[in-house]
Amino acid sequence: MTNRRRHQGRVRQDIPARRSRPNPAPAARKNRPAPSYQQRRAAAARQAAARRLRAAVIGAAVVILIVVGVLAFRGRSSPAAGVVSNPAAFSLPTLNGSGLVRLASYRGKPVVVNFFASWCTQCQAELPGFRQEAVALKGKVTFIGVDSLETGDKNFLPSLFRLAGPFAALASDVGPNGNDLHAALGGGNTMPMTAFYDASGSLLDVERGALVPVSTLEQKIAQLYGVTG
Prior knowledge:
It is a single chain. By secondary structure, the protein is of the alpha/beta class. It has 2 domains: 38-77; 91-225, Glutaredoxin (3-Layer(aba) Sandwich). Helices cover 44% and strands 14% of the residues. It has helices at residues 2-14, 24-31, 37-77, 121-136, 156-160, 180-184, 214-225; strands spanning 91-93, 100-102, 111-116, 142-147, 169-172, 193-197, 203-208. The strands form 2 sheets. It has a 5-stranded mixed sheet, covered by helices on one side. It is rod-shaped, with a radius of gyration of 44 Å.
């Protein structure tokens, strides 16, 4: 029994006690070097540069929006000098070149104002008759052509039907949609349209739609002015 206890004692003495190993992580974190002064300055400089870049981009965008808004406002509110879209006293830019086509300049004779556009097929149907009447009634009735609601070549129909000469003047309508006078006369989307003025410049009638055949135009002129070709 004594030997067995001694043997067991020796066995217990020979077994080493387990020891916990220290965690090296805290020591590693403690040994990590702190950012240097130069590194901190470089990081701060990068952040400041990024803020300046964002501010510059935002400022440029604001300036562009302001400029676009001012130009759009000026385009709507500042028509060319002398331009008037009042049907009772209109004054429109000439179709080509400089100058204005004024209703007041043609007082003393009845005035027929015909509106057309390059895309209008009914305009092509009636313009030969208008040219014919303009030639036949020259010196008795004044014909004026106005290109309105144009989306293409403003000179297409005047050139096709050789309106310059038989017509006393050719003009371009004005406004954001190029139809201020046309709209003021109640034209809406109607094309062609014709306005009839007496010799004093007073508006007598507005015809919406094509005046075809030419006899329809002849009858209208005879009815309003008592004039025949």
